[in-house]
Specification:
mainly alpha
């Protein structure tokens, strides 16, 4: 269908972009990546209903940031391909896909790792009344989360896979306005889809918020799924496609 996109009316093209974006969010590597982030979302609420609402909302926000990062990469790639007429070699896409595989393995390891052994340091500046600024490091065990990490993961995902193919297809449209509109509406569909995916993934973690053992099981399942998927991508790109040229 995308091969014949030039023959469609603008309304159909944009509707198609939204639908493809929604579908794009449910790809296994996207679900795996966001599940590792959702598994670390915490809740300060006490009542069961509040826990579900809070964790589902926070999980959906992570999906929104992921989708925003994904869309940012696609827009930049669209500008390079259409405006600057840059021809991106196939090996570049293979390399980017390999980076996604490595990223998934990293996310899996940080999810599966023993939290008591794996501590990350965060630097926080503190400004005093006299104007001096001190930076104080502190350690945490995975509860201190920032949405910019989900945004960065989305950016990396946007550079590889079928998202890049959508950009290459959009570049065949007649005008820059239509190319940009298609990519943006595709990105909007991805953001909506990822918000739904993240919210759904957050539900079992919210339901198991009190029983720590069950919550850990869900976290280990998410990490294992991400690890297997990342290892498979590395094998397919690195070995089967011989991206290293051995």
């Amino acid at each position: 269908m995308l091969n014949q996109i030039q023959n469609f009316t603008p309304a159909i093209i944009l509707t198609l972009g939204l639908a493809i974006g929604l579908q794009h969010a449910f790809q296994p590597d996207h679900v795996a990546a966001v599940s590792t982030q959702v598994s670390k979302v915490s809740s300060k609420s006490q009542s069961f209903k509040q826990i579900i609402k809070e964790r589902t909302f926070k999980s959906s926000i992570l999906g929104v940031f992921w989708g925003a990062g994904h869309t940012t990469s696609l827009v930049l790639m669209g500008l390079l391909v259409y405006v600057l007429a840059i021809n991106i070699p196939k090996n570049i896409f293979f390399g980017l896909e390999l980076i996604v595989g490595i990223m998934l393995v990293y996310l899996a390891i940080t999810t599966l790792w023993n939290k008591k052994l794996f501590r990350q340091k965060h630097m926080h500046p503190h400004k005093h009344e006299d104007g001096t600024v001190h930076i104080h490091p502190h350690e945490h065990e995975g509860k201190h989360k920032h949405t910019h990490k989900s945004y960065l993961i989305g950016c990396i995902h946007g550079l590889a896979g079928s998202g890049s193919l959508v950009v290459l297809t959009a570049s065949t449209l007649g005008s820059f306005e239509m190319v940009l509109s298609f990519i943006l509406i595709f990105g909007l569909g991805t953001i909506i889809g990822m918000a739904l995916v993240s919210g759904l993934i957050g539900l079992p973690f919210a339901l198991a918020n009190k029983p720590v053992f069950v919550n850990k099981i869900f976290r280990y399942v998410a990490g294992s799924f991400c690890l297997l998927l990342g290892a498979n991508i590395i094998y397919e790109i690195g070995v089967l496609n011989n991206v290293f040229g051995f």
